[in-house]
Write a structure and sequence with these properties.
Blueprint: H1 5-16, H2 29-37, E1 47-51, H3 56-69, E2 74-77, E3 89-91, E4 94-95, H4 98-118, H5 125-139, E5 144-148, E6 165-168, H6 176-179, H7 183-190, E7 199-202, H8 207-220, E8 223-226, E9 232-239, E10 242-249, E11 252-259, H9 264-281, H10 292-301, E12 309-312, E13 316-319, H11 325-338, E14 343-348, H12 356-364, E15 369-372, H13 383-394, E16 399-401, H14 405-417, E17 427-432, H15 435-444
Parallel strand pairs: 1-5, 1-6, 2-5, 6-7, 7-8, 13-17, 14-15, 14-17, 15-16
Antiparallel strand pairs: 2-3, 3-4, 9-10, 10-11, 12-13
Length: 449
């Protein structure tokens, strides 16, 4: 099989020609048909599935790192990607190679065509990617698959599998046009990943969301572990490059954990990931903690590209993939806690369909100014439209509009450094608003996942 860049580019073009992951026809019919034709690869290995609104990708990364620390071979599927589709399918902690990506696609392509021909609608980009991931994990094989839900839960293509551990990170209002008008309704959709014989691991939730998740757990008669009851963050303090935390897991306390990520939300992701791994390994109050040194080493090795990631110094440039008000609020709180900026300039590029005003409102008191820009997505909110919304929140004198992202970052750096003398050394830039914006910014600034 050729491993040329041309083969990978061709496969990417064919995948992108399909329905985008933002166009949904809620049904598991197509993905069920595909995995049946492929010999049920989704049942070849146990699955830890991660749903929720914010924190899914980072939590999945943490679960992966912990499991590999305990000697297991792990396959991980996450979405969306920052720069390359290959980031979505990870083996042994690394994106699958171009050769393996192309080979897997071509192996399943005839069966995808059969499903296309038989159905009312062809398979979507996301459905084919999910089929590729399950096929590759079965073929490798891996000991466990860590699978992040794309959107929702019940009708998400990843949910063709029955998870042994079903993890739900905090649920907030997002994708309301597809998932429902309020948080309890959205939580009910995400609760669909909780199946019979699973263990449900639930991060802290709003009361209405928790009610919906617990109702599903009772219906399925499953064991439930809840943050704040069975597990939680006991203590945390800011440390150089991240934070030091003490965690209450299902099996006991874990002390002196260094986490090289910023913010209370990342500590929450960490303890949720720890509880998920404990549940998978069978640890609990009767067995005691899993090996502490292994846990420490795994968390110290965790990286989460594009999640409040420092990509440049002098001035500091942070890239963050926050794309809804709840995520942006967590980012703002983390910056206030972990950085001593005297002047911070935001660069914001968003996509249509998001609560942009809510995100901008979360940033308003943190950023001295914002440079509004536009990412390369077909769904990008035009810079002029986003700029008009920013003026409503920040006022015209604190907003500039620069459609090209690279130029916007340069302008923001200049604005950050142009503040009063007392801002020298304490200035910074935050690039945020979308996973796509974060990925493009990383590429422009020379970082790779």
């Amino acid at each position: 099989m050729s491993s040329s860049t041309g083969d990978l580019a061709r496969v990417e073009r064919e995948l992108l020609a399909r329905w985008p992951e933002t166009r949904l026809e809620p049904s598991l019919t197509r993905i069920n048909a595909l995995v049946d034709l492929l010999g049920a690869p989704h049942r070849a290995t146990p699955v830890i599935q991660v749903a929720g609104t914010n924190g899914k990708t980072t939590t999945a990364r943490m679960i992966d790192e912990l499991l590999r620390g305990f000697g297991l071979r792990v396959g991980r599927f996450t979405s969306p990607h920052l720069e390359s589709m290959r980031e979505r399918i990870v083996l042994d902690g690394e994106p699958v190679s171009a050769e393996r990506f192309v080979e897997t696609y071509e192996d399943i392509a005839p069966y995808v065509q059969m499903v296309d021909a038989a159905g009312e609608h062809p398979m979507s980009f996301f459905e084919v990617m999910v089929g590729m991931a399950y096929a590759l994990f079965a073929d490798t094989p891996v000991d466990v698959a860590v699978v992040e839900v794309g959107m929702g839960g019940t009708w998400d293509a990843t949910n063709v599998a029955d998870a042994r551990v079903a993890v739900v990170t905090p649920v907030a209002l997002d994708h309301a046009e597809y998932l429902g008008p309020d948080v309890p309704t959205i939580a009910g959709e995400k609760a669909g990943i909780i199946k019979a014989d699973a263990i449900a691991v639930l991060a802290h939730q709003e009361p209405g969301a928790l009610d919906a998740l617990l109702r599903r757990a009772v219906e399925m008669d499953v064991v439930v572990a809840r943050e704040g009851t069975e597990f939680g963050v006991l203590e945390r303090r800011v440390a150089v490059g991240g934070q030091q935390v003490r965690l209450q897991g299902l099996g006991g306390e874990y002390e002196e954990i260094y986490l090289p990520l910023f913010g209370a939300h990342q500590a929450q992701n960490a303890v949720t990931a720890l509880a998920a791994v404990e549940a998978f390994l069978g640890a609990g109050a009767a067995t005691g903690p899993i090996e502490q040194e292994t846990v420490r080493a795994a968390f110290a090795a965790v990286r989460s590209p594009g999640r409040l990631e420092r990509v440049r110094s002098s001035p500091t440039v942070l890239v963050d993939a926050a794309h809804n008000p709840a995520g942006m609020t967590a980012t703002v709180e983390a910056i206030r806690e972990s950085f001593d900026f005297t002047r911070l300039v935001g660069v914001v590029g968003a996509v249509r369909g998001k609560d942009v005003l809510g995100m901008l409102a979360a940033l308003e008191d943190l950023c001295a100014e914002v440079v509004i820009t536009q990412n390369a997505s077909e769904r990008a909110l035009p810079a002029d439209e986003l700029g008009a919304l920013a003026v409503e929140v920040f006022g015209a004198d604190r907003v500039s509009v620069t459609p090209r992202l690279g130029e916007a970052i340069t302008e923001a750096v200049e604005l950050a450094e142009a503040g009063p003398d007392d801002a020298l050394g304490g200035s910074g830039v935050l690039v945020t608003g979308s996973v796509i914006t974060a990925g493009e910014a990383r590429a422009l600034l020379g970082r790779r996942p």
